[in-house]
Amino acid sequence: MIDFTSSLYLAMKHGSTELNGWDQLTAGVPAILREPPESREVSEWVARMQRLETGVCAPSTLHLYFDLFELLKKKRIVLFIDEKIYPVSKYGIEKFPANQIRLFRHFDAVHLNGLVKANVTKSTIPVIMTDGWCPLCGKAAPVDRYLSMIGPFNGIVVIDDTQAFGILGEQQDAAMPFGNGGGGTLKWLNIVSDRVVTVISLAKAFGAPMAVLSGTSTFVSAYKKSSKTRVHSSQVSLVHLQAALNALKINYDKGDKLRSKLWENIRLLKNKIWQKGLLAAGGIFPVQNISCGSSDETISLYERLNRNNIRTVLLSPHDAQIPVVSFIIRSDQTPWQINQLAAHIPPRSLTPIY
Fold it and tell me: What single string gives the DSSP state of each residue in 239-285?
């Protein structure tokens, strides 16, 4: 089976022989009492990569969002949430009354600006919640415009940068559209701000199932003090921390080479599909999507690929009636695998998605 469903974009797998040893998985105490030094090392490293002051680790983004809403509910907040934000980003939102929550159209800065002007007063603080990168749209959120809206009100922008972290970086060019370093959306957009908080799972590009919240020292300190999961849940296991450290070291040593190979594979797939008179949507990102003229045709393509031992993902794109067949590209895929995928896609039966 040729697999195009794994989001381990940089093919980091962290086998047991790659990791340092550990005497025990966990200390058996909640994070508020004691954390291993590896936890601080990972959180500080992740924060520095984004030009943020500091960070804190958690077992998952679910833990981070639950505690983030616990902190925010103590202030006079108006939440502005992208309507297409990753669903986990809203876990814990029930802590807020409905009149403090506003949904804005996906990545639509004009719509959001109107909502901010209509709903924020001198006594309230705007908090904008967004994904950093949308794989279905193939573009980044207009974070700079969001920051300009909340600046006069001392608000913050909370970015889930799980998709982009480890892939996007700084100083992108035609040869390397991802940029360098893998610091995520902030680096890719060249944004430095003390009004940004990021929430990142390391489970995609870096292959480590744990999460980090990053921001200013003041914000992270307040987060820790109000956290309930750090009181009632275990710390991140040493295995996951070792995997994260291994990923960060791999990224430091050869991350740009892995991203270069990833881009070669994405470009090869796009070219192979284009040679058939077709277009794959997704921009420069590892998630590439194609759609047929109808739902039945698209599902038929998905089933055809599966019958030929090519595993893909069938998705429903934003507000579209027709699903898409999604291919997730990784740095360890071979030209032969990509050619096999392209060979089983009928020519001129597909249409691009924008």
Answer: HHHHHHHHHHHHHHHHHHHHHHHHHHHHHHHHHHHHTTT---BSTTS
Give the model confidence (pLDDT) of 135-150 as tens digits. 999 999 999 999 999 9
The yes-or-no verdict on residue 63 having pLDDT over 90 is yes
Sign of the Cα torsion 334, 211, 187, 279 reads: positive
Joined tokens for residue 100: 């403090």
DSSP 119-173: H--TT-EEEEEEESEETTTTEE--HHHHHHHHGGGT-EEEEE-TTTTTT--BS--
- The domains of the chain are located at 16-251, 254-351
Q: To 10 degrees, the CA torsion angle through 111, 134, 170, 129? A: 50
Q: What DSSP letter does each residue of 286-328 carry, written as one string? A: SEEEEEESSHHHHHHHHHHHHHTTEE-EEE--TT-SS-EEEEE
Pick 16-251's CATH classification: 1.20.1540.10, 3.40.50.300, 3.20.20.70, 3.40.640.10: 3.40.640.10
Q: How far apart are CA 227 and CA 243, in angstroms?
A: 25
Q: At what angle do helices 335-343 and 238-274 cross, to 10 degrees?
A: 50
**DSSP-based helix, strand, coil % in the chain, nearest 5:** 40, 20, 40
348 pLDDT tier (thresholds 50, 70, 90): low
Identify the CATH assignment for 254-351 out of 3.90.1150.10, 3.90.78.10, 3.20.20.190, 1.20.1260.10. Answer: 3.90.1150.10
Q: Which tokens belong to 263? A: 């881009």
Tokens linked to 271: 């070219």
Residues 170, 174, 178, 181, CA torsion sign: negative
